[in-house]
Structure formats: C-alpha cells, structure tokens
TrEMBL record:
Species annotation: Cyprinodon variegatus (Sheepshead minnow)
GO cellular component, one term: SCF ubiquitin ligase complex
F-box domain residues: 30-77
Name listed for the protein in its UniProt record: F-box protein 48
Key words of the record: Ubl conjugation pathway
Length: 153
C-alpha cells in the first residue's frame, strides 16, 4: 500500500517539555541551527569528523559561528589527533593555544605520522615516490619512533 502525504511530512518537535508531532509549514526555516538551541546544534556537529566539520563551517555564517566558537567540538577532534601526536598536542596546550589552533597545527602531522608508523611508506624506493604525498616537518623524536617501528617490522 502506498502512502501519500497531503502536505509536508511531520517533524518531531519538543514543545513545552512534551513531545508532539507537528507538520512543517512551507515558510518554516530549513536550517536546524536557526531553530535549535546552540547546545543541540553542537551535539549534532559532534557527529562529524574533522574534515566534515571544516566543510560544515563553510556552509553559512551561523554554522561557522557555532562551530568556530565551540571548544567542545575542537577538543573532541583534537583528542583523536592526540592519540598519534601526544607530545605535540600537549606542548601546544601548555603554550596556551586553543583546541582549534592545536588541532589545525597537528591534524596533518598526525595523518603523516600515522602513515609512517603503520608502514605505509615502508617500501618507498626513492624520494620521488613521496612527492605525490602531503608531508610535514617532523621532529627528531618522531623520526626516532618511525625508525623504531620500521626496525620492529
């Protein structure tokens, strides 16, 4: 049996502390962040990975404002980067950098370091093979970790 809707589909809304179903009006806002409390929008944005979060922040001024001002969002993503770059993240935080700046400084580094540590570049025969890859400067301690990982393989 096919269900046909006479109007817009119902949307679940919380009204005055109780749940109810109300149809969306044609003139209602299409942007959830305009109707939800900021805390709820942040909870939705927390489901995104860092690349999607950065793309979402370019969607509109409101999303940009919510995302850029939420330390919770940047902290969550930064802690994922910290799993690979603990020393670098901890150093930046000790220096007083925000979670967002710390993440931006260390995101690419963490991706490159993780690739090296997991052996993605173990069979590189020449520097020319690395030219197609995005690289960042790594400190001596990181290169020591990478060398040890290579020796352990």
């Amino acid at each position: 049996m096919q269900h046909e809707s006479a109007g817009p589909s119902p949307v679940f809304l919380l009204c005055e502390g109780r749940a109810s179903l109300k149809p969306l009006e044609a003139s209602s806002h299409q942007n959830f962040a305009e109707t939800l409390p900021t805390e709820m929008s942040v909870r939705i944005f927390r489901e995104l990975d860092v690349e999607s979060l950065c793309r979402a922040s370019r969607t509109c001024k409101l999303w940009h404002s919510i995302i850029s001002q939420s330390e919770q969002l940047w902290r969550q993503q930064c802690l994922l980067v910290r799993a690979v770059c603990q020393r670098e993240v901890d150093s930046d935080r000790r220096d007083g950098l925000s979670w967002k700046v710390t993440l931006l400084r260390n995101y690419t580094r963490s991706r490159v370091k993780a690739d090296w540590l997991t052996g993605r570049y173990s069979r590189v025969r020449s520097a020319d093979e690395l030219l197609k890859r995005k690289m960042v400067p790594l400190d001596a301690e990181t290169w020591g970790e990478i060398l040890q990982a290579e020796l352990d393989r």
